[in-house]
Amino acid sequence: MGILSRSPTSIRRSEDGMKLLTTALFAIAFGVLLGLSFPSLWITKSYLPRTLLHSFAISHSDHKAIAIPKIWEPSNPQGAERLPHRIIASESDLYLRKLWGSPDEDLKKQPRYLATFTVGYNQRHNIDACVSKFSDNFTIVLFHYDGRTSEWDDEFEWSKNAIHISVKKQTKWWYAKRFLHPDIVARYDYIFIWDEDLGVDHFNAEEYIHMVRKHGLEISQPGLDPERGFTWQITKKREHFEVHKETDEKLEWCSHPPRPPCAAFVEIMAPVFSRDAWRCVWHLIQNDLVHGWGLDFALRRCVEEPAYEKIGIVDSQWIVHQFIPSLGSQGTAQKGKAPWQGVRDRCHMEWKMFESRVDKAEKDHFKSLQVESPSNSTTTH
Ligand SMILES: *[C@@H]1O[C@H](CO)[C@@H](O)[C@H](O)[C@H]1NC(C)=O
Ligand SMILES: *[C@@H]1O[C@H](CO)[C@@H](O)[C@H](O)[C@H]1NC(C)=O
């Protein structure tokens, strides 16, 4: 993997390689034979009294303790107890470093915000417009679902400093689960996980963060231009507001305390998470439910109650949802259905599956505590 070979003797003659291979094969064959002939040997070992094994282990480790003092630091992250505490780097970032010079001098900037977009090359001009609204206080990550990455560098200067992750035909929640582990993105105060079809003429990311901080929003999204269509009332941008946290129109499924989709709700299209909220939401994302449908109804579980105060829509920085079918067209025609239909069907199926998983998990939890579940349902269809 390295560019420079560590040892000049690493180039072996192929003869040596052959010899090594033959020896290895022979050794394996011998081992198998031995195992077949003396299976009782292994059985006896596993039936040795536990106390006996234990005392072996103790005398063994006592013996070692004299030679080298052992490290076992229970407060270290699980699995790393053998390391001295101060060498542990349990969190990371997405900062680009140099191959030369002193590591101290690598970073001119250490951005505190992260913006990710899941993109196809066809949407590059829109993404270019988006990125222009994010200052250099942001690390930019592009997840490429169409496998086209290098072309971006030819066209956009900013692309050379962005992080490109290319895996074909996956969704943003798939990428987020795999590449945005909370420990990896621990340096960022806020994380934007955005679609590629958002119009940002009336949006400025620094201003947005200012609003989010001011109003204490752990999870948020920009308001949507009401002229251009929206799915849920609450996401509609309001005039003369900085942020809002509830719908103006009471829908029949609104309850007290206010619950999604009337409050404590943002859509999965353009969410922004605080570091703490993301640490929770990452755990909520299911590995197999790639479209993330239904996640929006469960986000409230990831903030302190009352959730309707920590989740909101920023009105003063708003966006346009352009409804460009993108990933949908990356599906495959099946059983006479158009590719987009197959994708859409899966979205709905995932929503139901997610909802019932959350419900069941919650019920099981309260059952194990022998108290009644405080809520019956997570979402409303
Ligand atoms: C970047 O962040 C710093 C520190 O918060 C701030 O002073 C600066 O104005 C920001 N840059 C832009 C372009 O807003
Ligand atoms: C849950 O549902 C049951 C039956 O549908 C109902 O009797 C009960 O009051 C509900 N509990 C809550 C907390 O809504």
Explain what the structure shows.
The protein is α/β, with parallel strands linked by helices and 381 residues long. It has a domain at 113-326: Spore Coat Polysaccharide Biosynthesis Protein SpsA, Chain A (Alpha-Beta Complex). 33% of the residues lie in helices and 12% in strands. It has helices at 14-37, 39-47, 50-67, 124-131, 150-155, 172-179, 205-214, 275-284, 295-298, 339-368, and strands at 113-119, 138-144, 163-166, 190-194, 198-199, 219-224, 243-244, 272-274, 311-321. Strand 1 (113-119), helix 4 (124-131) and strand 2 form a beta-alpha-beta unit. Helix 1 packs across helix 2. It is globular and about 75 Å long. Residues 33-58 have low confidence and may be disordered. The structure holds 2-acetamido-2-deoxy-beta-D-glucopyranose (2 copies). It comes from Cardamine amara subsp. amara. InterPro entries: DUF707 (IPR007877).
Instruction: Kindly identify the CATH topology of the domain at 113-326.
Output: Spore Coat Polysaccharide Biosynthesis Protein SpsA, Chain A
CATH class of the domain at 113-326: Alpha Beta
Total of DSSP H or I helical runs spanning 4+ residues:
10
In round numbers, the mean pLDDT is: 85
What ligand species are in this complex? 2-acetamido-2-deoxy-beta-D-glucopyranose
User: Between the first and last Cα atoms, what is the distance in angstroms?
Assistant: 50 Å
Keywords: Membrane, Transmembrane, Transmembrane helix
Protein name: Storage protein
InterPro entries: DUF707
Pfam family, one: DUF707
